Amino acid sequence: KGAVGTGDEIDFSSTLSVGGSNAAATATQASINATTGVATFAAGSGTTLDDALMDIAGRFQAATTSAGEIALFQVNGAGDFYIYISDSANGVTSNDVIVQLQGVTIITSLAFAAGDLTIL
User: Reading across the β-sheet that carries 97-101, which strands appear in turn?
Assistant: First the structure.
């Protein structure tokens, strides 16, 4: 939700925060920018939705995942962004949340307030 020009707000049951770390991306772990939450992938990785999710979950696990950790990403580096919200279990599980942010092709900043996330 969010008024036009003010960004999109995600109100979730868990407190949201950027997960993972910005360590260099590998074939099994994405690099996640702590400021923007945007995940980047090693060459040849993140080319499918499943592969991108697995690489983000791999980074979350390596950095001790917790409920409400998020990462934003584009499949194969193009198109709409997705948001991945972890349930704290290792790997991609049925309780994780993945949402395609239709029409969002650029992320300039994130704001967290009272556990909610606003994407600008």
Answer: 17-18, 69-74, 81-85, 97-101
Distance, CA of 18 to CA of 21 (rounded, Å): 9
Higher pLDDT, 83 or 15: 83
Residue 75 — φ and ψ, nearest 5°?
-75, 125
Amino acid at 20: G
Q: How far apart are CA 38 and CA 44, in angstroms?
A: 17
Confidence tier at 1 by pLDDT (50, 70, 90) = very low
How far, in Å, CA of 57 to CA of 112, rounded? 21
Three-class SS of 95-109: CCEEEEECCCCCCCC
If you average pLDDT over every residue of the chain, what do you get? 89
